[in-house]
Amino acid sequence: MIDDLSKTLATVLTTAGAHQLATALVSFDRPTAQFNPQQTAINLFLFDIRENIELRSNEPIVTRSDTQATIRRPPMRVDCSYLVTAWAVGGTEVALQEQLLLSQVLQVLARHPTIPPSYLQGSLKRASAALANRVANSSNVDPSGEPFPVPLSVAVPSASRQPTEFWTSLGIPVRACLVVTATIALDLNDPIPNTFPLVISHAIELGTIAGDTVSEKTF
């Protein structure tokens, strides 16, 4: 699923961005001293993966149809953080070209508090389609259930994530960069979910005995 998130971000940048982004190569390599793209590129390096504790939930997800209910475990919400850098090739004022690319990345991603479903790739897209199918075929499905949207945060200050420390650890000069964090929902359920029949109705019978006569009433 994480690889599909990377592909999704690349699709957002190359589809919804300006001309410079649309024609740029999107790579996912670690930007070491040996990183040398042959054409202008945007690099999305995944450098941090951790559970989002604030979004943790122990409440099961219940989906109801006409005759049964399906109970699923809530997903693990995982923050995936990318270091975004621009690498211009050719032309003059390379630094300004890279600044332009970064500003376009910031504008495109900040435009979407959550990633629109039309950009989702692979397993993220299939999960979204599965929810739409459940909603279409059952009036009792809660549309706010699985799968969860993919929220984005861009250039948010963080004391625990200093890009300058990243460049120092690689032993290369500091570059202008953005930190982008997307939160995915990692399914923890077995392939075959737990299903239970719904209780449609119930009856209570009360009776009294008067002499040889039994009187009954059903509720």
Uncertain runs are: 135-146
Structural class: alpha+beta
Query: Globular, elongated, flat, extended or rod-shaped: what is the shape?
Result: elongated
Give the ordered list of helices and strands.
HHEEEEEHHEHEEEE
Main β sheet profile: 5 strands, mixed
The radius of gyration over CA amounts to 26 Å
How many DSSP H or I helices?
Answer: 5
Instruction: Please report which band the strand proportion falls in: under 5%, 5-15%, 15-25%, 25-35%, 35-45% or over 45%.
Output: 25-35%
Read across the widest sheet, the strand sequence of neighbours is: 1-2-5-7-6
Tell me how many strands there are.
10
Distance between the termini: 52 Å
- The domain tally reads 1
**Mean model confidence by pLDDT:** 81
Topology:
Elements: H1 2-16, H2 19-22, E1 25-27, E2 41-51, E3 61-64, E4 68-72, E5 76-87, H3 94-110, H4 122-137, E6 152-154, H5 163-170, E7 178-186, E8 194-197, E9 205-210, E10 213-218
Parallel strand pairs: 1-2
Antiparallel strand pairs: 2-5, 3-4, 4-8, 5-7, 6-7, 9-10
Structural notes for this entry:
- Residues 135-146 have low confidence and may be disordered.
- The protein has one domain.
- The protein is of the alpha+beta class and 219 residues long.
- A hairpin with a 2-residue loop joins strand 9 and strand 10.
- The protein has helices at 2-16, 19-22, 94-110, 122-137, 163-170; strands at residues 25-27, 41-51, 61-64, 68-72, 76-87, 152-154, 178-186, 194-197, 205-210, 213-218.
- 27% of the residues lie in helices and 29% in strands.
- The strands form three sheets. It has a five-stranded mixed β-sheet with strand order 1-2-5-7-6. Strands 3-4-8 form a three-stranded antiparallel β-sheet, with no helix packed on it.
- The protein starts with a helix and ends with a strand.
- It has five helices and ten strands.
